[in-house]
Amino acid sequence: MTERQSTTKAHLLATMQALSPPLEKLMTERVALRAEIRSAQSALAETEKQIVHLKQVRDVRIPRYIAVAKTAALIATIIALVALTLSLFTGLFEIKIVAPLFASLLIPLWLVDFAERNFGRWHLHLDRAPTFAHQNN
């Protein structure tokens, strides 16, 4: 019986070792998991920084670019209208020069309108500062 008990104990010990890994293996897996968690947290922090940067571009830079483009297009359109008016009523300019210029200003106005439809619209006021209303998609 002692041989049988020792054989049973040996089989039981081998089975327990097979089922429960050694402490060193558990510790290395724990260290590896901690390293994975740190790398995932740093990747998450980097992604959050990119999100903040893209929101800043969407909320600040694009409206500024639209404002500059809208101002330039409106000023150029007003100048072209004044030139067209002067050419029609005073004969100061040739109509051949002003008409294509006025027609070419429709493209920047269309581009500004397209950008405002996608990102938000600037509202210009005579008595106060311009305001930007974001487009909610």
According to DSSP, the number of beta strands is: 2
Oligomer: single chain
**Cross-sheet strand order for the largest sheet:** 1-2
Rounded Rg:
37 Å
**Secondary-structure element pattern, one letter each:** HHHHEE
Task: Estimate what percentage of residues fall within beta strands.
Answer: 5-15%
Name the overall outline. rod-shaped
Structure classification: mainly alpha
Uncertain residue segments:
none
Tally of DSSP helical segments: 4
Helix content: over 70%
Major sheet attributes? 2 strands, antiparallel
The averaged pLDDT comes out at: 80
Termini Cα gap: 81 Å
Q: What this model shows, in words?
A:
By secondary structure, the chain is mainly alpha-helical. It is built from four helices and two strands; from the N terminus they run ααααββ. The protein has helices spanning 2-19, 23-89, 95-104, 106-119; strands at 120-123, 131-134. A two-stranded antiparallel ribbon has the order 1-2. Helix 2 packs antiparallel against helix 4 (106-119). The protein is rod-shaped, with a radius of gyration of 37 Å. It starts with a helix and ends with a strand. The model has no long low-confidence stretch (mean pLDDT 80).
